[in-house]
Amino acid sequence: MTKFIAAAKTQAGTNHPVNEDRLLLDGNVLCYGLVGDCEREMGCMAVFDGVSEGGHGAAASTLAAQAFAQAVRVFDTDAVNALQERLRMAGERAENDVETYAARYGLSVAASTVAGLVVAPDGHGAVFNAGDSRVYRLRGGVLAVLSCDHTPERRVGGVGTEYRDDAVSHCIELAIGLNQGGRNLEVKTTVMLPGDRYLICSDGIDGQIAQERLQQMLASDSTCAQLCEELYAEARVNGSTDDATLIVIEVGEWPCLMRRLRYTETVAMAMMRP
Question: Which site among 1, 61, 73, 183 is 20 to 30 Å from 111 CA-CA?
Fold first, then answer.
């Protein structure tokens, strides 16, 4: 059975009164705080970035996160195709819930990006996303983007490039609640190997950190929780004012002494309900 360590952080932007990002970890939907290093064997980990008019982005991201939390709560199989089917069911449910909310309040736009990783007990997993939130993997010192950007940048510069253009950098072509994004999730399989590090993040993190720097930071000796704080601080120093959410995962077991450590630093967290 594959074991991994995960830590996560989500925080409102410096110019946002409310955090419109959401974090899904251990079946819980979080809108604020840091979850410290904890050993796990399976689960669904994802970030959601709400987009809407009139401040409804938080509701859209919450509804999307709750749909995934409920659909991917329990794993009774290692089969990759079963995981993929569960994710597609979650995307369908999330799309329906966000669409219903938008119709109820007469909104022309209510949507949420999603990027995540679901891991089965045997170490097989699936990466999924819709929008511009990303999943990275560091393996053998090489950083790779496993998710697929749904933005004009993808057409111009390609996934993983450093291309930026103010005219298109925040245009999302697909998301939950936008252009059937929940029903058209990008889903691809992966195998987690000892030593791998994964970063799942909203654009409030990697939008302000060059990929060479991301690779350098993920290759450091910092723990997952330390990396969450360091990456968050780096994005802020580089000018990010957006909501910022990230999950850092490292595949492998802790030494026996460290294995007894559980949530070392859990701060105030709340579940937002629309």
Answer: 73
